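Entry 12.
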Amino acid sequence: MKRIKFLFSILALAVTLSSCDDFLTYEPSNAVNDATAFNTAKDVENALNGVYYSLGRYQFYGRNVVALGDIAADNTYMLGTSGHFDQIYKYTMSVDSPDLLDIWDGGYKTIDRAARLIKSGNELLGAGLSANDQATIRSAIAQAYGIKALSHFALVNVFGLTYSEANASTPGIVIVGDEPIVAFQEVSRGTVGQTYTQILADITSARANISNVPNNAFLMNEAALDALEARVKLYMKDWTGAKNAALSAITKSGGSLVKVPADYYDMWTTVVPSSEDIFTISKLANDNLSANALNTLYGSYDGKATSGLISLFAANDMRLALFSGDRALKYMGLPTSAATSNIPVFRLPEMHLIVAEAKAQLGEEDAVDYLWNIASRNPDLVKADLPTEKQALLDFISVERRRELFQEGHRWFDLRRTGENLTRVGGNYPITNWNASAFVYPIPSQEVNASGLAQNTGWSENLP
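Predicted 3D structure (tokens):
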């Protein structure tokens, strides 16, 4: 077991964070003495703000994790004019690739801040606080558990093999439980199976107080936690668990699917949550996102939609309006700020498609009903034409996920979890019939060299 490098930066002396993508400037609570940082419920609220901040930075869920999901697959290609994400697109990455280091570092900073909030918040609960203050702290702890689970899930699906019975014993990531890792603590990578066990444990811990979290799309609330559980159990092929959690998320969100084409387009042009948003990362025009925005990657940095993706849409499909030539427009930004768009993490359409897939796997006939809720966005499609035979239905759901969830970071992870081979149609770096599920990204060399964590051996042998 070794000492992990990321601790040396996040446990250093306090510094004030400021960069071109910061939407707030603050002294993070995990960089100061915990006894000073957590004296009141307000301190815990401030620390929670820091957890959301880390989650939404461009290094992690504010760009890199989401971008990888489309660019590494067959939805997006990079022209190479800016150099951004070219290594991910062309699979020329190495152990020194900065985009991978950013995901690793950003993920663990988020996890560390969540773990510190959980520990110090629980300690503060015994300090004779008012009922209102205790409720505030319990709500923050629940949200921190949910974000910690989401962060582990993102990291293990980048740096570990996809979940399966065969892969459960393969190397996963460094697991952070209820106790934050301290400087110079010896740690090692857990297995993929152990990582998923921790993810489910954090979801369970969050449930103790998640009902105290307001039903706000910018918060990891009860519906968002259900949505996370649905996605996790879908990856685990726990079809019943995925179905039940997704159905609960649909109900608890209180939202509804957008039916009017103009409304569907408009909901991507504002930072006001739509009726479909369950959990979205908030961005504002005064965040000064600039070059590090996901919008910029798909705009002036020339991330383009592949012809293979665009060809999936019928002429009257309402979603086709979100393309202008070969540019996909979910991150078109605001009229006054092209770099500004919220980053959706969970939306209602994903939950309907999870229910459809789980029911199809379980042989339940009404799987088609949930698929139709989303597929009907193509008005020329007739419900009776949807397949009913199991494999044909699953194949249709896979394509429908691609149509509905493009640019939201799902496609590469979907290919891995289903075992579907990757063939790129369009773009300038073709890949044909490649088994993405056998591939795993390398642990960044800065981490391996500093701490001695085990590398993903043979990762380069499975490149396309």
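Annotation: The chain has a mean pLDDT of 92. The CA atoms of residues 20 and 323 lie 28 Å apart.
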